[in-house]
Amino acid sequence: MRIAGLQVIVLVVSVLLLNQNLLAEPTTRPTDFTKGKWSLTLDGAYDGEFYPNDHISFAIGELGLNYYLWDNLSVGAMISGYAVDNDGPGAQAADLSLVLRHHFYNRDRLSLYTDFLGGMFEADERVPHRGTYFNFTIRTGIGAMYRIKDNFYVLGGARYLHLSNAALEGVNKNPDINSVEGYAGFLFLF
């Protein structure tokens, strides 16, 4: 067991040392996402529930506006429209979320980031059908942006989504949804 752990450490260190391009300084400007800039995001997503019932899905369209408080760290808001394939009648919903995004790796045209969204969700039907019309959402994940031209990026990533009403109407009306979403879209920096 101890030898296997040592082998993993040696393998990781070897890969990092052999591929110095991963550790090298960027060859162009260090970041496009500098303090004081704004970004406008337009994207689409698809979520499939993986727990507890595995049969609810969401198609999502989103529009977001972020402000960079510091280099590579932004805060903003996102409004999302949902089409819900529910375990009862289908539903339409809207979500307003606070967004935090951190670009942790920038090189040439590529930026890797992580984000966190916390929001309020209101639907025209109960979601899930044993739940409530109003819910809270938490989404977090990783993504990548690629600059196509100055201030214009394509983006894509994956997020975990948790939807719950936090037992506002009691424990019996608090079924939650856990899903994974894939998303793709565009970002304009100004």
Output the number of helix runs: 1
Helix- and strand-based class? Answer: mainly beta
Strand residue content:
over 45%
CATH class reads: Mainly Beta
What is the string of helix and strand elements?
HEEEEEEEE
The counted number of beta strands is 8
Q: What's the CATH topology label?
A: Porin
Average of per-residue pLDDT values: 86
**Which regions have little confidence, pLDDT < 50, spanning 5+ residues?**
1-6, 15-24
The global form is: elongated
Report strand order across the widest sheet.
1-2-3-4-5-6-7-8
Instruction: State Rg.
Output: 20 Å
State the share of residues found in helices, binned by percent. under 10%
Brief summary:
The protein has one helix and eight strands, in the order αββββββββ. With 190 residues, the chain is mainly beta.
Notes on the structure:
- By secondary structure, the chain is mainly beta.
- It has one domain: Porin.
- It has 1 helix and 8 strands, in the order H-E-E-E-E-E-E-E-E.
- An 8-stranded antiparallel barrel has the order 1-2-3-4-5-6-7-8.
- Strand 1 and strand 2 form a beta hairpin.
- The N terminus is likely disordered.
